[in-house]
């Protein structure tokens, strides 16, 4: 997001505000967790945690308050930040309208109706994959499918941790790939690439990992007793909006047009099938907007802080340090991966990790001639991997929380970790892609055109 004609003098001190943000975020979660508060890392909204960092930036950076405020607002209003935020709210509206019209229930029930019950563990994984790639939310997927998965595990006398681990894996598959996931939106906008290109680069790592996981689950996840499943009605028409958005975005249609058409299509189908009326359609659109307020605000505040830090040499200093470690594209990609893993582990939020690391990854991409479609895929993949295995992350906490009523048979977050097979296999494929280069996209990236576009 740096629009200056010359690079600022490198300064490690300029990174202190970002460090304060991460420390406040992490410390708050640790303290609340020690107090026994559930979902400790998510009790204090991220936009509140970033305020001390912004205040510190205003105090420590040179210049008048007016000039620093101008820089901050310039960063908040960066073109990519605004585009990112607009996509967020449209994605939120589409997800909410589609869900309230009955789309999510229809997808789940349809999948359950065609999956043989002897393969239910692998089926739960596939359902998680499709729901998350359709809705763009891993947390929503686990919350929706989780109670069903718990019931089927009990009826089939299956290991609860195995079934829930497969669900979390499926949820992270879609979180990583979905064109309306906030992680995809953040990764593509910080690297200034099209969603279809990031999807193509990403799926070369995610799809093989998902297929191997599915086969393993088919072999080891057979129930001792075939569970019974009550009648679960569905309407295939309600699935159409999800398919439209997924196919249109991958085909290269403008994302604003894709999401706008998706919202309208969901509304029309919802009204026609009786799930919505005009009033609830309008209300759900705004509810979807409101649901994205936190990430919308955080993106703007982080954009402003990033610009101030960049202007004072913080990002250039970090890139220079990575340049000293890296000897070429492979080691530079390893740097992006490690930076993303550490940031997500500290914040327990993969979108926050991408927003923080995105500008640095973009600089590294330019410096080492890494295809930005590739850097976007790396940011999203490694952040989703870490988010999907940390026991204090929302995904695992929610999955484990679904078993609380089982008493002695309840599953703890730590017990889920050995069964997070998809995440582990995904990490192996992602690491392999750095050294074997099997996931590179065809065609050279025009870095000169990219630089000219950024300047303009």
Helical proportion, percent range: over 70%
Q: Can you summarize the main beta sheet?
A: none
- What is the strand content? under 5%
Secondary-structure element string: HHHHHHHHHHHHHHHHHHHHHHH
Gyration radius from CA atoms, angstroms: 22 Å
Mean pLDDT: 89
Structural class comes to mainly alpha
How far do the termini sit from each other? 12 Å
Uncertain spans = 1-5
* Tally of separate helices: 23
Structure summary, number of beta strands? 0
Describe the protein's topology:
Layout: H1 16-34, H2 46-49, H3 51-60, H4 65-76, H5 79-100, H6 103-114, H7 120-135, H8 138-155, H9 160-177, H10 182-191, H11 195-220, H12 240-251, H13 255-273, H14 278-291, H15 293-311, H16 314-325, H17 329-347, H18 350-367, H19 372-387, H20 394-401, H21 413-416, H22 421-436, H23 447-455
Keywords summarizing the entry:
single chain; 456 residues; mainly alpha; 23 helices; disordered N terminus
Explain what you see.
Helices cover 73% and strands 0% of the residues. It is mainly alpha-helical and 456 residues long. The chain is globular, with a radius of gyration of 22 Å.
Provide a compact summary of the structure.
This protein has 456 residues and is mainly alpha-helical. The chain has 23 helices and no strands.
């Amino acid at each position: 997001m740096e629009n200056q004609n010359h690079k600022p003098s490198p300064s490690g001190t300029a990174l202190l505000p970002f460090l304060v943000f991460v420390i406040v975020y992490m410390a708050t979660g640790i303290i609340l967790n020690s107090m026994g508060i559930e979902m400790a890392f998510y009790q204090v909204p991220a936009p509140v945690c970033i305020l001390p960092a912004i205040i510190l930036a205003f105090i420590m950076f040179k210049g008048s308050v007016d000039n620093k405020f101008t820089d901050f607002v310039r960063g908040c209003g960066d073109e990519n930040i605004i585009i990112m935020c607009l996509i967020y709210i449209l994605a939120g509206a589409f997800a909410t309208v589609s869900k309230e019209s009955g789309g999510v229930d229809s997808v789940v029930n349809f999948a359950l109706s065609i999956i043989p019950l002897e393969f239910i563990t692998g089926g739960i994984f596939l359902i998680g994959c499709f729901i998350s790639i359709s809705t763009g939310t891993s947390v929503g997927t686990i919350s929706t499918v989780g109670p069903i998965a718990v019931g089927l595990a009990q009826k089939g006398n299956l290991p609860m941790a195995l079934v829930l681990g497969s669900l979390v894996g499926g949820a992270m598959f879609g979180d990583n790939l979905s064109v309306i996931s906030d992680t995809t939106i953040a990764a593509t906008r910080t690297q200034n690439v099209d969603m279809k290109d990031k999807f193509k680069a990403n799926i070369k790592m995610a799809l093989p990992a998902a297929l191997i996981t599915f086969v393993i689950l088919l072999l080891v996840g057979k129930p001792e007793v075939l569970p019974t499943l009550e009648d679960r009605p569905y309407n295939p028409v309600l699935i159409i909006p999800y398919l439209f958005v997924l196919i249109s975005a991958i085909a290269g249609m403008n994302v604003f047009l894709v999401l706008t058409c998706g919202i309208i299509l969901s509304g029309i189908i919802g009204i026609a099938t009786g799930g919505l009326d005009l009033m609830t359609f309008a209300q759900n659109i705004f509810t979807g907007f409101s649901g994205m307020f936190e990430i919308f605000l955080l993106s703007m505040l982080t954009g402003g802080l990033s610009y101030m830090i960049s202007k004072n040499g913080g990002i250039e200093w970090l890139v220079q340090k990575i340049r000293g470690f890296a000897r070429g594209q492979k080691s530079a990609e390893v740097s992006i991966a490690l930076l993303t893993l550490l940031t997500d582990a500290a914040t327990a939020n993969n979108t926050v990790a991408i927003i923080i690391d995105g500008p640095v990854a973009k600089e590294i991409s330019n410096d080492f001639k890494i295809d930005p479609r590739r850097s976007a895929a790396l940011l999203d993949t490694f952040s989703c991997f870490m988010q999907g295995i940390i026991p204090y992350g929302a995904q695992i906490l929610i999955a484990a929380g679904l078993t609380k009523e089982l008493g002695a048979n309840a599953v703890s977050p730590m017990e889920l970790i050995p069964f997070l097979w998809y995440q582990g296999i995904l990490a192996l494929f992602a690491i392999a892609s750095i050294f074997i280069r099997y996931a590179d996209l065809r065609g050279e990236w025009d870095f000169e055109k990219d630089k000219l576009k950024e300047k303009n």
